[in-house]
């Protein structure tokens, strides 16, 4: 009985490891393997997604990160009123990510015209970088904008696999 | 919705629930005693089987991985893959990031004054929102029709339907109501690109790609509801749609953009549709008699490995001897055929000249080393130009090319200004009868009707000079220029045996732009230039010595200093341009706010650029002539016209009536 159990354990571990390989295979072709794997592994949809599905998961991460960043921007208005102008520009840029880039990417990737998805994903990185630049080196949002840049690069690499 | 720990490393795997069962004691240990050896054997063999299975799984996964992956010590993978786009946007993204941390970067914001200036005066664009591919262009009952991919809801791609506009002259347009919307299951997810064919009785059929309610790409048939309506306002979709679905071996999302049909010698209609098999770009061929049922040929029109998906395939004859357009069905000994495709991977339109074999529907290129889609193969345009489509204009016997010119700015700006994308000025396309090896394109004659006042200039410009050309307003211009390098300057360079064959190393993209000075160039015009030259867009020739002391001429547009804005793409575009013996160097430039279209050597090399100056706008936009050559003096003879607006009108019966009187 014990031996059967051990064998079944081995089976489960093998199945789990081989399913993770699809994510690993895909992430190896992106500029940030660790980030890619951590984003996809932590999502319950990741283990059974095809490339298109993985791309959509990452677009969802972009959406989540943009929402989180907008919340932070909003909270900074009170804490750092002297940064209003930069915060206004950042707010505009991040709203573009949520209202234009993400919906465009979702529609394009789902419908099989990934190049428009690539455009949306690249733009998310651009908007984050522009926001960061508004603070002339003294940004309170650096870790968030940097994350967006990195996630955008990884997502783009996966979207390009669909072309 | 992502949790805040989404960026944290992998969380621990779940505990194996079976572990707890295994640790319970087995009450029937004694009664199982006799079966233990058999069970043991079973367990071991199962174990071996699964280990073997696991190894096989790993082995096959390894096989699909490319060989040049290495994981560096910090865990990032480096790999040269398609994921790494050797293109401008990636570079500018990295640059943008570097700049963003710089304390000296000017924090920049688009204001409405800057953004509203960007709208063009005489290029086709809808009143607002997003546009992409040209669709089904045609001439019918006195009107040029233009359809286009349109998003009625936003300034980014999505919710695509067919926009529609008409013109008498390809320049003055009036917008019409949407021609087709996504109202059937077979185009519920998008009414995508298609082409028109004229039947023998003069009626029109339109084939277009629909994205079905399940996101499968299919081909559908539509036709005008009323052929007596010259405006072709209403379109009817064939109730039996779709007429084509992805064939076996073709993925459901790799089947789009049907072409205009041509007549085969067997009397059937034939179309081609781009696709891909793995990384090989292909063009499928179908024959039909009624546009409702089709016979797929076993042969492909053509295929080229490693070019990826072929979008917007176009296929048409060109005359070898006459400078005129040909109907799509023309064939014969005096004819070559062009295969053109839009490369999804690189967003570049490529074409090649070759021979069509009607008997089996195949085509072979004259020069396979520059086959369609190979990076060095010919392009209609070396700048921003995609999804292009030609049609035969039976009105004036010309083949006319439309090209989608997207934005090069951020989507934030597009949303703020409320629109995105233009069409290039329609161009005539013919084979270059002098070289036989490339097409020649030229803005349609009708664009000249926009010319207002002009000024003519003749000047000699020494090395390292800059001349302000005072033409008043400089955002809407048509410039035609002829240049000659003074004989003495040329002889000096050609005679100098020690002067390296610079042309071998030169490219517009990589040689630093218009401020890098060579012996014989660069020289040309700086358009949309601020008087301080802090913003400018040079369009220029760069002449360099090649092998065997031949001169090679390059034609470039340098947008790297076109704008202070840090969220726009600012590439240097261009290519070498054939210059035949005895020819002077000629260029034509159409400037229309945020678009610059440059034509070198009568249209042998064309470059479309999008530029977004922040200061060189309105009255502050100026025109300069420059010669940055180190040694050469050039003579320039040119004419500059102010260009009127085309006054593209929103839909009204009155606007239609006004146009029909012209």
From TrEMBL, chain A:
UniProt key word Cell membrane: no
UniProt-recorded Gene Ontology molecular function terms: enzyme inhibitor activity
Domain Pectinesterase inhibitor: 18-158
Keyword tags: Disulfide bond, Signal
Gene3D superfamilies: Invertase/pectin methylesterase inhibitor family protein
DNA repair recorded as keyword: no
Pfam family, one: PMEI
Signal peptide residues on this chain, from the entry's feature table: 1-20
PANTHER family for the chain: PECTINESTERASE INHIBITOR-LIKE, PUTATIVE-RELATED
Recorded family membership: Belongs to the PMEI family.
Classification via NCBIfam families: PME_inhib
Protein name: Pectinesterase inhibitor domain-containing protein
Native species: Brassica oleracea var. oleracea
UniProtKB/TrEMBL annotation, chain B:
Gene Ontology CC: vacuolar lumen
Protein localization: Vacuole lumen
Domain Beta-fructofuranosidase N-terminal: 20-115
Domain Glycosyl hydrolase family 32 C-terminal per the UniProt entry, residue ranges: 446-642
Positions of transmembrane segments: 40-59
InterPro entries: Beta-fructofuranosidase_N, ConA-like_dom_sf, Fructan_Metab_Enzymes, Glyco_hydro_32, Glyco_hydro_32_AS, Glyco_hydro_32_C, Glyco_hydro_32_N, Glyco_hydro_beta-prop_sf
UniProt GO BP: carbohydrate metabolic process
Entry protein name: beta-fructofuranosidase
Organism in which the protein naturally occurs: Brassica oleracea var. oleracea
């Amino acid at each position: 009985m014990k031996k059967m159990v051990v064998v079944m354990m081995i089976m489960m571990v093998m199945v789990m490891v081989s399913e993770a390989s699809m994510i690993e295979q895909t992430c190896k072709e992106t500029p940030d393997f660790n980030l890619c794997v951590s984003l996809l592994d932590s999502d319950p949809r990741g283990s059974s997604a095809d490339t298109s599905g993985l791309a959509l998961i990452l677009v969802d991460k972009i959406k989540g990160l943009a929402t989180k960043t907008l919340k932070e921007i909003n909270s900074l208005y009170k804490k750092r009123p002297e940064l209003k102008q930069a915060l206004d520009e950042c707010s505009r840029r991040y709203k573009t990510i949520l209202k234009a880039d993400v919906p465009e990417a979702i529609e394009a990737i789902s419908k099989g015209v990934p190049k428009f998805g690539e455009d949306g994903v690249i733009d998310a990185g651009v908007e984050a970088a522009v926001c960061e630049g508004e603070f002339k080196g003294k940004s309170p949002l650096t870790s968030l904008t940097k994350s967006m840049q990195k996630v955008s690069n990884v997502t783009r690499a996966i979207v390009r696999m669909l072309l | 919705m992502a949790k805040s720990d989404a960026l944290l490393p992998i969380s621990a795997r779940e505990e194996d629930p079976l572990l707890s069962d295994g640790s319970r004691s087995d009450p029937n240990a004694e009664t199982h005693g006799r079966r233990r050896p058999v069970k043991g054997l079973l367990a071991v063999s199962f174990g071996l089987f699964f280990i073997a299975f696991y190894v096989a799984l790993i082995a096959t996964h390894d096989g699909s991985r490319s060989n040049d992956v290495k994981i560096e010590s910090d865990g990032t993978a480096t790999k040269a893959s398609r994921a790494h786009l050797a293109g401008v946007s990636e570079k500018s993204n990295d640059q943008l990031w570097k700049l963003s941390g710089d304390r000296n970067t000017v924090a920049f914001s688009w204001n409405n004054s800057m953004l509203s200036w960007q709208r063009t005066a005489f290029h086709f664009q809808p009143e607002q929102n997003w546009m992409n591919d040209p669709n089904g262009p045609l001439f019918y009952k006195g009107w040029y029709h233009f359809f286009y991919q349109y998003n009625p809801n936003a300034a980014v791609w999505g919710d695509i339907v067919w926009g529609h506009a008409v013109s008498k002259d390809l320049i003055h347009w009036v917008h019409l109501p949407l021609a087709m919307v996504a109202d059937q299951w077979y185009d519920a997810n998008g009414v995508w690109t298609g082409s028109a064919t004229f039947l023998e009785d003069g009626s029109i059929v339109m084939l277009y790609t629909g994205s079905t309610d399940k996101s499968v790409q299919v081909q559908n048939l539509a036709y005008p509801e009323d052929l007596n309506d010259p405006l072709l306002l209403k379109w009817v979709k064939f109730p039996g749609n779709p007429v084509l679905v992805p064939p076996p071996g073709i993925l459901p999302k790799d089947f789009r953009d049907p072409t205009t049909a041509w007549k085969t010698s067997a009397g059937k209609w034939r179309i081609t549709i781009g696709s891909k098999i793995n990384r090989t770009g292909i063009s499928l061929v179908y024959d039909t008699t009624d546009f409702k049922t089709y016979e797929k040929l076993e042969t492909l029109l053509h295929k080229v490995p490693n070019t990826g998906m072929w979008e917007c395939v176009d296929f048409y004859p060109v005359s070898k001897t006459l400078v005129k357009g040909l109907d799509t069905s023309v064939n014969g000994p005096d004819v070559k055929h062009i295969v053109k495709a839009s490369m999804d991977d690189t967003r570049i339109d490529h074409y090649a000249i070759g021979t069509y074999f009607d008997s089996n529907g195949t085509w072979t290129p004259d020069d396979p080393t520059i086959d369609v889609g190979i990076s060095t193969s010919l392009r209609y345009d070396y700048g921003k130009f995609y999804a292009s489509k030609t049609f035969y204009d039976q009105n004036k016997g010309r083949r006319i090319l439309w090209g989608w010119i997207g934005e090069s700015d951020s989507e934030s700006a597009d949303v703020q200004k409320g629109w995105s994308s233009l069409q290039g000025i329609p161009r005539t396309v013919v084979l270059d009868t002098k070289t036989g090896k490339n097409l020649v394109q030229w803005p349609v004659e009708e664009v000249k009707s926009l010319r207002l006042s002009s000024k003519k200039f003749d000047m000699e410009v020494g090395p390292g000079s800059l001349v302000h050309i005072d033409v008043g307003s400089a955002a809407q211009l048509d410039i035609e220029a002829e240049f000659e390098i003074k004989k003495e300057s040329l002889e000096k360079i050609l005679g100098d045996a020690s002067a390296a064959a610079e042309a071998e190393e030169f490219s517009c993209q990589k040689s630093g732009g218009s401020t890098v000075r060579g012996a014989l160039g660069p020289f040309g015009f700086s358009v949309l230039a601020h008087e301080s030259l802090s913003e400018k867009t040079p369009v220029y020739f760069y002449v360099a010595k090649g092998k065997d002391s031949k001169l090679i001429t390059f034609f470039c547009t340098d947008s790297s200093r076109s704008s202070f804005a840090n969220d726009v793409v600012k590439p240097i575009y261009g290519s070498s341009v054939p210059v035949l013996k005895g020819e002077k160097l000629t260029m034509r430039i159409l400037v229309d706010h945020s678009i610059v279209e440059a034509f070198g050597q009568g249209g042998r090399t064309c470059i479309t650029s999008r530029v977004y100056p922040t200061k060189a706008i309105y009255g502050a936009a100026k025109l300069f002539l420059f010669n940055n050559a180190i040694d050469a003096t050039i003579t320039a003879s040119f004419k500059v016209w102010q260009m009127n607006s085309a006054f593209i009108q929103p839909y009204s019966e009155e606007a239609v009536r006004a146009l029909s009187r012209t």
